[in-house]
Structures are given as C-alpha cells and as structure tokens.
Amino acid sequence: MKGPLFYSKILLFGEYGIIKDSKGLSIPYNFFKGALKKDENGDEKAKESNAGLRKFAKYLEQLEQDNPGLVSFDLDSLRKDVEEGMYFDSSIPQGYGIGSSGALVAAIYDKYAHNKITVLENLTREKLLRLKEIFGKMESFFHGKSSGLDPLNSYLSLPILINSKDNIESTSIPSQNTRGKGAVFLLDSGSSGETAPMVQIFMEKMKQEGFRKVLKDQFIKHTDACVEDFINGNVKSLFGNLKQLSHVVLDNFKPMIPKEFHKLWKHGIDSNDYYLKLCGSGGGGYILGFTEDIEKAKKALKGYNLEVVYNF
C-alpha cells in the first residue's frame, strides 16, 4: 500500500493575524511531501509514526461522537491498517511551520472519511468552510487548536485566499518569473519550534490593549496590503508593505523570533537587501524571506541555508 502524496504548504501572509480576521494567503510547496505507507518491519521513525497514528485513530473516534453529522470515518479499516504497521512516510520537517501535521490530516481524511468532499467537485465557499472546520477539529489533536488551513491547503494543493474567518476561496497567484531577480525564500533557523507555546504567548499578549491596537492598526493592515499586492502582482507596493510588516513583527513578536536572528532581521530592514517574516507560528523552524535581488540577499545571508520557493 502506498497512498497519494500530500504536500507541505507555506502561509505567505496571515500568521497570527488570521486568528483575528486578517487576510491570509497560503500556497502549496511541493518540495516536501508525505504519503501513508504500510510496513510491519519499519524503522524507528516508521514505528514512532505508527504509534502516533494509533493515538490519532482513538482521537478520531471521540471526534465522531462529539460532533455528530460533521464527519465520519471508516474506523475499522483505519484500526486494521494501523495494526498492520501503517505509518506516514514524510519528508516534511516537523516544527518548521510548513504543515507536517496538515499533510497527515489530509491523507487520513482522503483515505478514511465517509462521503468526503473531493477536489474534483465544484468547491463552493460552503464546502471549503466545511472542510476547514473538519480539518481544524482533526488537526487540534496535534496543536491544541487549529484553523484547519494547513490540511485544507495540503488536501486541495491549491493556493488559498483567506478573506476572513468565514470567507475563504481557492485563488490563483501570478505565474513565477523564473528569470526574475526577486524571490520568496525559506531561511532555516536550524531548530524546530512548537506551535502551542507560541500561540499561548500570543494569546497572553492579546490581553494588553496596546498590543491589540498594534495588531489591528499595523500588523493586520500591512498583512492585508501584502496579500492584495502579491495576488495582483504589485511588486513595488508589496516590498513597501513587507518592510513595514517585518518592522512590526520585530518590534512586537520578538519571542517568536529565535534570538540569534534578531540582528539579521534588523539588518534586512536597514539595508533593504531582504525582509524577514514569520513562517507559521515561529519559535524556530523556517523563517520566510522576501527580496528584490536574490543574489544580494544570498551575500548578506552568507553561511545560512536559503531555499527559493517563488521568483518574481
């Protein structure tokens, strides 16, 4: 047995903001992927994954009981496959902000959900929201609370535009200019991050009126502008808004940025060689970078591992 492939994702814009109804833009990233496989004599990693799936199957049983009418699974088949050594074979690094648990959730839904909503049908807003709700509840097993966006992106393998909590749509983004100097890149921080504690810090900060004001008047404003600019291909305006956004994050989301990157972050803003932002919840994993000149950025970030994901 080898299931279909599910890809990682990159939330280009919207981390934390979408909790408070900012816009967001998420794109599939096909460099990393995962699939369900079976092997009774798997290695340690496979055994660990199999043990995780066993717990997940129990959780899904409870999920079904607690949410009648939302989703039901072929739990007998799932349990049988887990008994036979099924695991999730994935190259998606965990704790890196690119949707490792999202791909697993998508794979399980695809294989075991009854009456599943498929990619081939007309995906109305209602269907997208229903999928997002199902995926959010499924992925909560891993993060405590999930928006459901990562699995949705992985499942559909399409860019997703979040207009607000109740308004999401699949969208298209401008075609890449493979010869372009501008780029979106991933910067490896060298350590993984945990989502739950980062979200906890954010929720604590939200209790302060000053932080809420910054979030609404600056963070969400620039995030929304970046989404609009990116989708419409307004590169000049995009980089103006990115600079502002990078600044707001450095000033107000310091705990989410690994300490050794504070200087690097500021250098990008001061030099305009690149602008950094959080990729997912932060705390480690990947940092997302944007530059109008990738060669300049590579020079400025010499010694760091850069992975280009999109060219302007």
UniProtKB/TrEMBL annotation:
Matching Gene3D superfamilies: 3.30.230.10, GHMP kinase, C-terminal domain (3.30.70.890)
Species of origin: Poritiphilus flavus
Keyword Nucleotide-binding set for record: yes
Signal peptide from the UniProt entry: none
Annotated coiled-coil segments of the chain: none
Domain of life the protein comes from: Bacteria
Ranges for domain GHMP kinase N-terminal: 86-150
This protein's record includes keyword Transferase: yes
UniProt entry keywords in alphabetical sequence: ATP-binding, Kinase, Nucleotide-binding, Transferase
Stored Pfam families: GHMP_kinases_N
Annotated InterPro entries: GHMP_kinase_C_sf, GHMP_kinase_N_dom, Ribosomal_Su5_D2-typ_SF, Ribsml_uS5_D2-typ_fold_subgr
GO MF annotations, alphabetized: ATP binding; kinase activity
Protein name, as recorded: Mevalonate kinase
SUPFAM superfamilies the record matches: GHMP Kinase, C-terminal domain, Ribosomal protein S5 domain 2-like
